[in-house]
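User: My collaborator and I are trying to settle a disagreement about how two of our proteins should look. Neither of us wants to argue from intuition anymore, so we agreed to look at predicted structures for both before our next call. Could you fold the first one, then the second, and keep them clearly separated?

Assistant: That sounds like a sensible way to settle it. I'll keep them separate. The first protein:
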Amino acid sequence: MSLMNKIRKNTTFKDGRVDVLSESKFLNQKDMTSTSIPAVNIALSGSPDGGFTSGLTMIAGPSKHFKTAFGLLMMKSYLDKNPDGVALFYDSEFGTPQAYFDTFQIDTSRVIHVPVTNLEELKFDIMSQLSDIEVGDKLFIVIDSVGNLASKKEVDDAESGKSAADMTRAKQFKSLFRMVTPHLSMKDIPMVAINHTYDSQGMFPTKVVSGGTGMYYSADTIWIIGRQQEKTGTEISGYNFIINVEKSRYVREKSKIPVSVRHEGGMDTWSGLLDMALDAGCINQSGAWYQLVDLETGEVQEKKYRSKEFTGKEFWNPILESDHFKKYLKERYVVGNSAIMEE
């Protein structure tokens, strides 16, 4: 018997989890779910036809920055892909009415709503759920939000009239995500946690994810959402929400990817692609006019477009599917996978 087989035979784990690394189902068989927005897929995986996998995705930012909407977009995509799937929605803010789910065309009969009032309630219930979930069960979890959850000590102190500072909250957060993370990875469960940010102190303050280091260490992906107004004349017609990739296993950190949401028309499916296509040399700009570039010859085509005409699969799919654009995205956004050590 080879040493490899001997080690596998002698393991105390008899549930099939121990395997040769190259064949490990926990590392090499991640189920990826694409959203309907290519720019969001790029922010998640570096590819317009990529998406999200199991593990923790943290979406943080100030109020009214579309954080929950990104989570619901991912929920919708997961439930569409998995007809037998179920979503578990932990709610501490109660700011997401059913009408918001209806906007994303989510079948709310497949969503379990769990109101929580403190961090310990969340920890005990989510661990009870995850412990009973089996490999192969299709579950998607959203917590909205972890940033607004008080610890039980903080609640008890308030009820008792005590004003002592709560020193347990960060430890409870670290405990929660330390316990949850292995279940998410081993049972192929994606989870989105909505969070808040605060400004760091100093001459040049930056946005910091609240809740301490525990969540930061456990998360596979962390987005910090920024926002820019979009105007038609002097009127605000919508917003560009900027996905700042703070941490990712797949996408280069500090990447910035815009997603446009308009008051009329909602989320723009083709958000952010024009700037990428210009930078990649797939489109040429002359003043307010744009022209496609023949990627085989490099010649600029005669037909001219306005920016508002860049809509529809017929226009964007040839660009998204081109090897030239895929190479550009990989070089600009994807975390390098070249050898660290050279002979």
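The second protein, kept apart from the first:
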Amino acid sequence: MRVFQVEQDWSIEHLQMASKPMPQPAAGEVRLKMRAAALNYRDLIIPSHGYGKRMKDLPLIVLSDGVGVIDAVGAGVTRFQVGERVCPIFYQTWVDGAPNAERMQSSLGCEQDGTMATHLVIPEEGVCRVPAYLSDFEAATLPTAGVTAWRALITEGRLKRGETVLVQGTGGVSLFALQIAKSLGAVVIITSSSDKKLASAKSLGADYLINYEKEPQWWRTVREHTLGVGVAHIVEVGGADTLAQSVRAVRTGGTISLIGVLSGSDPKIPLGQVVTRHIRLQGITVGSRADLEAMLTHFEATRLRPVVDRIFPFEALHSAMHYLASGKHFGKICIRHSV
């Protein structure tokens, strides 16, 4: 089978296409013939050993998101049959329940081989069926960014109809958060430095648009849009440069979901406000299989469709990663696995 893997040494230059023997499923495992994969920002730092000692030894097959069709099953498999289309879950060790070290110990494309392979063998507990109405590329985007947004707003955030959500940027998690929030009847404020991307976000249902380059004190604008109250929930992806403003923009008793650290991981924030206004700071790193299953049920009921920006052929993984790093995209970047 064909794979893209980091081999010999940790660097983007050592991310190479290679051939490996066809894997065979053992008892309790299924083999997927992969149809598509999707990129996330974590995939840009994986080749440089960005997650340190927790990572699998080289060689490492990259990427965590994808979709495929089961073409072989091992002995004792009961949940699936050959021919079913499924997505592998991000944390292969987190089926359900609250996060803990054991459940979060092994993610695809980091602690174990990922989805950038023509075939993938994993336990049957580590995959989910996907709705037929979604294309392969749409389905491939769901297990990481989609589940992150779902867990932030729904599993942990318990978002209610009519509440206001602030979404930072137009990356994968942020667009999923926008779509999920609007499908549940929430009001959404979104920030970006690009008027073009803000216009695209408006077409997805965003209620209020803020260009943070034109309005650097954007928390004040958020307060104005909420009549001085603040928002119920913030999807915080900026990190050090945005967290202090998020604290000022959230309402008393509101939640800030800490998902990204794009501007750094050492913020200076007004902790007094966090304490006296009962602000909840909630760290989020993807979620469980149960989160993905619940999200897929909601997607099928509401017919939500992930936003796919561009599709690259399997051989062009490096080009896809360069495009992701450029920040020019609006929506997810996918890989076609067809041989």
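Some points you might bring to the call about the second protein. The longest strand covers residues 29-38. The CA atoms of residues 238 and 262 lie 5 Å apart.
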